[in-house]
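Subgroup meeting minutes
Present: P.N., E.W., G.H.
Scribe: E.W.

1. P.N. recapped why we're keeping a running log of single-chain structure predictions: easier to compare across weeks, and new members can see raw inputs and outputs side by side.
2. G.H. added today's entry (414 aa).
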Amino acid sequence: MRVPLSAPAAADRTAARARWPSPRARGWQPLLVTVLLTVSSMCALSLGTPYVPPHRLAGAVLDGDTTLAGIVVTELRVPRLVLALIAGACLGAAGLVLQEALRNPLAVPEMLGVSSGAALGVAAPLVLALSLPAAVQPLLAIGGAALGGGLTLLAAGLGRSPSAVLLTGAAVAAALQAALLVLMVMADQLDLQLVYRYLLGSLSARTWEDVSGLWPWLLVAAPALVLCAPVLSVMRLGDEDAAALGVRAQRARLAALAIAVVLIAPVTAVCGPVAWVGFLAPHLARRFNPAAGAVRWLPWSAVWGAVVVTVADVPARLALAPVETPAGAWTALLGVPAGVALMRSGGRGRTPRRRPAASAAVRTLLHGPRAVTSGAADRTPCTGAQKNAHRDGPGGALPLSSGTRGTTGTEDTP
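Output recorded in log:
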């Protein structure tokens, strides 16, 4: 028997849909992303010392090593811009993978021990004066990130409870950050400055060699993301429903963690833990298309991550010129309030749905089974005798206690 929704429930659902962005508003997302990327890229390539006008950028790139502007643009600013785009895309995609796999909008690399573990793996050889080739640093970062994320999942029972994962991850991240503080105490003055700037996430003095070291890991992570996206959509249904559809939740979470580690660790090895990009980018992707799933959110989360890091790197380089500030400080300064605002606005837009089936069951237990008719019969006026007959039923009057008059439903008044 189908019980229609009550008027308040229908109104709540209509209001929730009204708060979602319309198709026209979702159409603004590509335009907004294009404008932000274009403006931030032009600022990143033109502004600074020396200043290169936008109409001379093409000539400066073609000149190459022949002029000062060509050297600065091609050897410093372009690789820094490319690194910002790649790092932001990796962090944004990794943030969405973790949030969807753990069904928690706060499941970000910074809160799960992944970023702290990767930073610890890179900073420890530097402070301990261990001479290692540059190609080994991504491997050390991957080992540290896998250690931090693995400890979080194992201590939280492989993610059975999203809140337990978040609390356990915060504890693991705090322990790893304490280890980083011990390393900073052991470092000398020069190493301390390098480690401090690295731990805040900086794109300063990065070259094409740093960018080229990320491509092998991207070739591994990109196909894994394509295969992981449909599984993330199933994981949103819950462990039991996912198991009914043939997805093993624990193995899926471990696979999602492995993909996130491969995305985060190489970026952290190059430019440090750029904070809270994996928190803000997925929320921006959901905000513009909340009715979509992980398959559509994943590319937009990567795009928004690239936008966030590229935009944040402009004030990081120019706000206190000639001194450069870490880009991670700006992403944390701007990303956390914006992400919280997006979560609050999204929470107000989603009202809990009422369960009419449960209300029907309660009415059945209290008043017994009654036939529900629809159509013209519902609108036919009844006389007083018919109302009494309808209420009393064939078996006589049904006693109603005073506590049952306030139940939901279409109860007849005496």
